[in-house]
């Protein structure tokens, strides 16, 4: 297949710097509803191993919290219902704590209890 551009042709246009001003607002996190930052994790609320296909935007720290507090079977039962996840006291405490943090905030999360 032919190349679209020559690898030696450097006459391509430089990217516009105005794109940053026109960028759409970041999607809100599925768990905590804060706007996402630079790093967005596309999380499967129903794990792929359980047949999940839908993905939702999340902060990495929020995804780590879900993984630390729920098994794949539990996540499958909750599905896309975030309200059920928020009934867990550990998750509710986390969401209340992270509510006023910067979108790119990160911290170590406790290990999964097995």
Would you kindly provide a written description of the structure presented here, covering whatever features stand out?
The chain is mainly α. The chain has a domain at 41-99. Helix content is 28%, strand content 5%. The longest helix is centred in the middle third of the chain and has 10 residues, at 60-69. The radius of gyration is 19 Å and the shape is globular. The N and C termini lie far apart (52 Å). The model has no long low-confidence stretch (mean pLDDT 83). It comes from Novosphingobium piscinae. Residues 1-30 are annotated as: Disordered.
Keywords:
114 residues; mainly alpha; 4 helices; two-stranded antiparallel ribbon; single chain
Structure, briefly:
Residues 1-30 are annotated as: Disordered. The chain has 114 residues and is mostly helical.
* Overall residue-averaged pLDDT value: 83
What is the alpha-carbon Rg in Å? 19 Å
Please estimate the helix content: 25-40%
Strand order of the largest sheet: 1-2
Order of helix and strand elements from N to C terminus: EEHHHH
- Supply the helix-strand structural class: mainly alpha
SS elements, strand count: 2
Shape: globular
Distance between the termini: 52 Å
Instruction: Please work out how many helical segments DSSP would assign.
Output: 4
How much of the sequence lies in strands comes to 5-15%
Uncertain spans = none
What does the main sheet amount to? 2 strands, antiparallel
């Amino acid at each position: 297949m032919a190349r679209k551009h020559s690898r030696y042709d450097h006459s391509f246009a430089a990217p516009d710097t105005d794109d940053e001003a026109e960028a759409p607002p970041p999607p809100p996190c599925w768990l905590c509803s804060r706007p996402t930052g630079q790093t967005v994790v596309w999380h499967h609320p129903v794990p792929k191993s359980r047949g999940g296909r839908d993905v939702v935007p999340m902060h990495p720290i929020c995804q780590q919290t879900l993984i630390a507090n729920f098994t794949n079977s539990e996540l499958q039962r909750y599905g896309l219902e975030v309200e059920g996840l928020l009934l867990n006291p550990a998750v509710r405490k986390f969401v209340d704590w992270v509510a006023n943090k910067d979108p790119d905030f990160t911290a170590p999360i406790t290990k999964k209890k097995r």
